[in-house]
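Recall the central idea of this unit: under ordinary conditions, the amino acid sequence of a chain determines the structure it adopts. In this exercise we apply that idea directly, starting from the sequence alone.
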Amino acid sequence: MSVQAIQENYQFEPRDLQRNYGDNMLLFIGWDHHTLFCSAHAFLVSPQQTLQDLIDQQIQAGFHQHPDFNQIDWSKVQFTLNRQPLEAEFSKTLSELNFDHKSLLRFVTPNLKGYQGSHV
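Accordingly, the structure predicted from this sequence is:
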């Protein structure tokens, strides 16, 4: 559904442009089948950090509250980046894995279906 401004010539420069983040970028991360987190979280990340660093730092900080988090087997997690499958190469940088500003990373944890199997 498109949005129409109520004012003619409503134009502005978005404040979330890449250039406003220096060497960093915004990254959105969502954990599928775990609706305790109602939407993807936004994180400020360095494109030079590795996927493992992302897991150990931002993903850990953003999702550790969930009872399933400590049970994740990261070697079995299925990742998608911008709706495309992502091969989990944990030692590669986000830049090498084609992450860019405002990318959406989603992950699915097989056999973990949320609190007591409820997808929450």
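The mean pLDDT is 92.
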